[in-house]
Task: inverse folding
């Protein structure tokens, strides 16, 4: 649950949220001077008892994210 | 040094806005939410719980609303954008738009630590629309 922890700690500079056709929410996090893109597909984000992270994906990018 | 004036050549001073300064000195935060094919009252929403020990300051907000179908592209694209403190149940900012808008805040919207904020764009047109909402700010 690396991505979920980063979200919980506010350990990011940029976040996007995009609903997916399967009912999940795609949350993407990036941070300056960190050459990774953090993605998770989650259902019922912030709904304590129902929240469920379906999948996480951490992608290394060639250049540091500096947007 | 001429005429006894101090030598300021080594000193650099930048005049920047507070949000610009904060984005460098605090933790810069940018949010983007999208939603496709939204009927009237559908929304694009970014939800964020401020759980660090810092508060979130929102310094700018923007949205775009455009028709899903090409046949509706020339119509008015009515909608609204808002910032809602879901913990307190209070809307901090609401603005009606036609097609989209962007606004920098002279006075930041403050989301205290422990609170959850919804940053939203709503479709208020009578046809399906694509929605994008973005916000910028910092945590400190």
Result:
């Amino acid at each position: 649950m690396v991505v979920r922890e980063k979200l919980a700690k506010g350990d990011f500079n940029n976040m996007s949220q995009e609903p997916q056709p399967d009912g999940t929410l795609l949350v993407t996090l990036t941070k300056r001077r960190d050459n990774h893109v953090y993605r998770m597909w989650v259902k019922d984000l912030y709904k304590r008892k129902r929240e469920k992270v379906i999948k996480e994906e951490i992608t290394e990018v060639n250049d540091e994210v500096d947007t | 040094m001429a005429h006894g004036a101090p030598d300021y050549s080594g000193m650099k001073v930048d005049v920047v806005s507070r949000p610009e300064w904060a984005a460098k000195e605090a933790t810069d935060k940018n949010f983007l939410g999208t939603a496709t094919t939204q009927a009237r009252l559908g929304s694009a929403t970014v939800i964020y719980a401020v759980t660090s020990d810092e508060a979130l300051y929102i310094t700018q907000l923007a949205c775009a609303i455009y028709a899903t179908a090409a046949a509706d592209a020339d119509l008015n694209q009515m909608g609204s954008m808002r910032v809602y403190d879901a913990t307190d149940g209070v809307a901090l900012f609401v603005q009606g738009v036609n097609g989209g808008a962007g606004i920098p805040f002279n006075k930041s919207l403050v989301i205290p630590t422990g609170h959850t904020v919804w940053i939203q764009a709503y479709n208020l047109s009578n046809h399906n629309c694509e929605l994008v909402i973005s916000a910028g700010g910092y945590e400190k």
